[in-house]
Design a protein that fits this description.
The protein is α+β, with helices and mostly antiparallel strands. 64% of the residues lie in helices and 12% in strands. A ten-stranded antiparallel β-barrel has the order 1-2-3-4-5-6-7-8-9-10, surrounded by six helices. Helix 10 packs across helix 11.
Amino acid sequence: MSRTDDLRPFGRSGGFHRVAFTGRASEYFGIWIVNVLLTIVTLGIYSAWAKVRRNRYFYGNTVLLGRAFEYHARGLQILVGRVIVLGGFLVLNLLAALLPFLVILPLIVVLVALPWLVARGLRFSARVTSYRNVRFDFVGGAGGAFKAVILGGLLAALSLGILAPLASRWMARYVGANLRYGNRSFDTDPKLGPLYKVWFLSVLLALVGLGLIAALAIANLPLLAALFEAPGILSPGERIPIVLAAIAGYAVLFATFGVVSQFYRAGVRNIVWSATTFDGRHRLASDLSRRRYVWIALSNVIVTIATLGLMRPWAAVRLARYTWEHTGVTFDGDVGEIFDTIRQEGSAIGAEFMDLEGIEFGF
């Protein structure tokens, strides 16, 4: 389907419709540079409003059926949340410093509060997002966040990544099953088989990278052995190959980590989105090329570093365009009637909310 098809006026036919991203790097650069300068001048305070301006641009250029998404958060909501979290951390660490027997108090509080903060963060992000004047919502609680974030993360780490697909499934199900659009629900149930297939391919890529590092070590084994046996036996010139090999080894290690993480990320996204339904009959889809996604993500990092950050807007727009234009929805039925019904039913979410749930805590 061509991009012009994606941007056609809102019609009344069902079937598959791709998302489009209409942002341009030149436009976003103006927003980005102002955000950076004002954040520096205000010692970070403006970063809350910078996030709002950034999200409004990216949401406003993400288009489905000719209509863009909208982001409704205000800078003050984000700033208040950050001040509360920062203040809490400062108080906890001050208590730990004054009362040594409370040294583990900050860690305990974080572990207890993190699931609640994650759930509130997801709820905030959903509620400040709308499409066709209908708000999203998130109804998940702290218990589900504990399982998806803390327990899943611990299992993945303690199993050296073997249980990472299980953690990914828990997170996908927690987010997908609790997401709402108006009064209609989403549902996500990715299978472990496809997730482990992506994981297995990621492990193979990791082994290739580790093999290259091992080859570098083996090639310099005689010099390393001499260095350990008699540290002063090698001249500065003779040590240069070891230094270069160490630098190359670290470069390969970081490159391997980047390739593997982005490869796994793209694969999981395809599986999770393609296993997601809305209102029980409309199906989402993602068809990212994992190799292309890895190339875009890593080349973005290289270009951004090489230009001292000045190409960051180009990189962000480039990745957003590729990601969203490989995302779509298959509607079952008359699209016009679907959205008319949802809009008429309304939503329990008001246009303005500044209670505790209307504060963004940064999680």
